Amino acid sequence: MLAQKNRVPTETQTSKVVLQLKGIGKRYGGVKALNNVDFKCSQGSIHAILGENGAGKSTLIKIISGVIQASEGTVEISGQAVKFANPTQAVKQGVVCIFQELSLLPDLSVADNICITDPPRNRFGLIDKSAQIRLATQLLAQVNCADINPRELVRDLPLSRRQMVEIAKALGRKPKLLILDEATSALSAADVEKVYEILKKLRSDGLTMLYISHRMHEIEELADTLSVFRNGQHIETFSKGSRNNDEIIQMMIGRDVTSVFPAKPIAKTIKPTVLKIENLSWSNQLKNVSLSLKEGEIIGLGGLDGQGQHEILLALFGVLKGYQGKIIINGNETLFTSPKQAKSEAISIALIPEDRKTQGLMLPMGIDDNISIASLKRLSKGLMINKNKETQNVNEMIEKMSIKVGAASNPVSSLSGGNQQKVVIAKWLMTQAKIILLDDPTRGIDVGTKQELYQLFRELADKGHSIILYSTDYDELIGCCDRVSILYQGSIIKELAGDDLNETNIIASSLNMALEKDQVKRMNKRNENNREVSL
Fold first, then answer.
1. Which one of 3.30.110.30, 3.30.420.40, 3.30.420.10, 3.40.50.300 gives the CATH number of domain 1-94+175-253?
2. 395 burial type by CB count under 10 A (0-12 exposed, 13-18 middle, 19+ buried)
3. For 201-224, what is each residue's pLDDT tens digit?
4. Is the pTM of this model over 0.85?
5. Which end is more exposed in the chain, N or C (fewer Cβ atoms within 10 Å of the end residue's Cβ)?
């Protein structure tokens, strides 16, 4: 059950209602995205919104923040009915939203992005660059990111740092109501702790926050009140601690949850090694990394974000140039030079990338085109694509992955985040790759879709595919992987398997801590008693 430590007044105990929705509905043709929603949240609280992808959460926050307008019902801010025609009007009323998909412009500097809507100006009405740098520096310090250079281009920052810039940009708009949509999904563990501190301070200062997350440990840490949505309807609102995890998940998905992770098989025979890395080094980010992967095995890459995990996957997919060391595929040493080579029939590697929007999908194009694009050579005869075969294979992948589509030709941007991720995975499964690289594949998707993907990964391994999984979710590494290699500052410092593969050992190894055996036992026992299902 969600703990009730660090209690703060819940919304039922506070007086001032900042946001109230009355009978809100939203229709797209004959489809009801939201249906007669009543909802409110009060000043100085963190109100969590829970639900599967497609439950109506995104539609709800888009209506509140002025991105779209409701088909019926009323939105009230501090007791006054409002109807925002666009996000700019919402911001002027103090309603600011940080969406999961970042709004930053990569070719502008950090300072330009933070101040883009209302840059400081000099007495001649021109943008005051010096004042802009000072303001950006102050806001970055406010989010504990003084290490980010405000003059640096956003495109040169890793995804986790961009997310912190997005938060600084939102605070610069002086919100009364701050909406955070999966605000920590791209962050490193260190940055997540910074966000916790920031949000708790903002709450104590009286700011109201709506917090959308699929991670229950975040909800426990932050939320005062929780609301569950399912199929466009508001199911229930309750105080933290009044419902246990199984009850919450059942409300979210409308069915009982038996097991989040499929059972791991008991190894009976020694399988051949399909991939071997020897002393892989690159720049100062990889240092003499060695590991092996057997047929039908799922191995994990753990550790704090930014320790070289992404670079290992990129090296194996032919993206990194100038690496040192050996990569051996099925006993043959291979020099990786391009993704085209990596996905070739002879090597047969697929990479599910970290950021589906920018690295995995072509958003304006159809769902069918996105699924088939990596397999065009296999679907072609000479210079002509076999359209019948393409359509048949695409439809088979849509069915296999349970992708919820209206029509396969619809833009992939029309899908929910979970279904978009399924499209990325379907694209690479259609190549019939033997080795599958997964770069944080369930980031920002709901518990129901995660369970489907966990089952898929295990089914693929059982059929002889081999998988390397990098995840920022400890539960995912423990539940999915046969063994896990922990990276620290570009090197593998520990491999965990069997009973040693637990949260305590992952955390201790990630921090390069040497814990005494009795301390480990005590921590393991406590973790077992307090185990949380990560959503």
1. 3.40.50.300
2. middle
3. 899 989 999 999 877 778 888 999
4. no
5. N
